[in-house]
Amino acid sequence: WGNPKCNGKLPPGSMGLPIIGESIQYFSPYTEFDTPTFIKERTKRYGSLFRTSLVGKPIVVSTDPEINHYIFQQEGRYFQCYYTESFTKILGDQNSMLAYHGVFHKYLKNLILKLTGRENLKGKLIHEMDVNTCRCLHSWTSHESVNVKEAIAEMIFEYSAKHLFGYVDKEGLKKLKENYIAFSDGLISFPLNVPGTAYHACMQGRKNTIKVIKNVFKERKSSPVQHYDFLDHLLEEVKKKETFLSEEIAVDLVFLLLFATYETLSTTVTLATKFIADHPLVLAELTKEQEAILRRRGNEESEITWEEYRSMTFTHMVINETVRLGNIAPMILRKVTKDVELKGYTVPSGWLVMVSTLSTHLDPTMHEDPLSFNPWRWEGQELHAGSKNFMAFGGGVRLCVGAEFAKLQTAIFIHHLVTKYRWEITGGGDTIRRPSVTFPKGLYIQMSTKTR
Ligand code: HEM
User: Fold this and answer.
1) Ligand 1 proximity of 436 Cβ (cutoff 6 Å)
2) Hey, whose CA ends up nearest to atom 9 of ligand 1?
3) Residue 44 and which of 70, 123, 210, 418 are 20 to 30 A apart at CA?
4) Cα distance between residue 51 and residue 42, in whole Å
5) What are the φ/ψ torsions at residue 13 (nearest 5 degrees)?
6) What angle do CA 95, 434, 205 make, to 5 degrees?
7) What three-state secondary structure class fits 333?
8) For residues 189 and 86, is the Cβ–Cβ distance under 8 A?
9) CA 176, 333, 369, 445: dihedral to nearest 10 degrees?
10) d(CA 13, CA 61)
């Protein structure tokens, strides 16, 4: 167990205990934005590439930005996208786009771009996001205090359900959302499908949600009415004679996207709110930029345009800094498909590699004083693409397909928040990583309308 077979020299490290390996140490929750002790201690002892074993799998962890970049670029050659067993099962197993590689993966990604691609964002979603965000923020002023994470998650969920599969039934949405709440816990649990376990609750939630999506799909097939949503595109594809897209894959694609938007985006917006509140100079600079947009626009009541969104340079710097320091996806897994040499060591075929994106984002040689929230560090840098020092949205062919969607929604939220409201944090705001960032006590703010 401790000395696995290898046709070369394995990276240094310890495989821990049989079966559980070093899982307990890895999954211990921690509260800081800093590098977890697990990675810190091992990097100090073994260097930027070390071996370990987590949830029964032999893994090589890379904290080296060059190697991380290389791993993304070699997708399909030495490495293949990999998610844990529980994650894969919950997100659709063989029907999930996450299980597809090569041309099929490319085909599914292009389908998703019908929803999250620039054309749809620019032509349709920007308007809807603007109206929804305005309405949502306005409603917060009538409450003594609002839990940002919950309220934003609700807004995004409703809005995504509408655009993905035209689902607008209020009661149904409430029930559907409850299913998703159990997900974050189940995703990192052992895949033990027994009543009472987090995994079981998660699988039940999946079953209920899939049933709802399937029903809508069935209704749509029998009625020729256009709804102008993502499901319309999927139906069109499914009907084609020579198509790879089956009904099961289409349903799981809707399920995956509903999950991807809900969880990541609500965390990003909540983190941005927290960071802005904690840094008055950032709030002042954002307000200056966004108020200048209002002045240029003339009519303050008209909606945000795509050109305005693209011109929000400082806002984009704040968003990049939020996802850099927040590390919403702190690591990404890949499966090694044939023996590969990394830094003079051999990683055997069948092993996993963990790209520690968090380590790249907190590397002081890449980002000076990495633990400080400093949007100005992005001045003069490319803001809209991934790079060797910025991989919050992944890299290579698996680069996040919802990145622009997420940035647009966050920018619109910031625009309205800083131009229309005064607000302060009244409770919560502490974060715990498990290893993704969570707000166990939410983030509460009190808001009132700004008088001009
Ligand atoms: C700030 C918010 C977000 C962050 C930080 C984020 C991060 C990521 C990362 C790191 C990956 C790469 C995973 C890998 O290489 O294995 C990824 C993939 C993906 N993301 Fe996002 N994401 C965000 C928002 C979204 C949104 C809003 C959507 C949907 C509209 C979305 C849909 C997806 C999908 C479908 C993939 C799989 C892409 C593929 O396998 O080719 N993400 N995301």
Assistant:
1) no
2) 393
3) 70
4) 9
5) 145, -175
6) 40
7) strand
8) yes
9) 10
10) 10
Q: What pLDDT, in 10s, does the model give residues 138-180?
A: 999 999 999 999 999 999 999 899 999 988 888 888 888 887 7
Residue with the smallest CA separation from ligand 1 atom 42 is 402
Residue found by looking up tokens 């050659």 in the block: 77
Positive or negative CA dihedral for 257, 258, 261, 263? negative
pTM over 0.90: yes
Query: DSSP letters along 186-254, please?
Result: HHTS-----TTSHHHHHHHHHHHHHHHHHHHHHHHHH------SHHHHHHHHHHSTT-S--HHHHHHHH
Instruction: Provide the 8-state DSSP code for 366.
Output: T
CB count within 10 Å of CB 221 equals 12
Residue with tokens 């140490």: 25
Q: Is the CB of 254 under 6 A from ligand 1?
A: no
> What digits encode the pLDDT tens for the residues 219-271?
988 887 888 889 999 999 998 888 889 999 999 999 999 988 888 999 999 99
* Cα of 291 from ligand 1 centre, angstroms: 31
Specify the ligand 1 atom closest to the Cα of 256: 35
**What would the two tokens of residue 76 be?**
């399909």
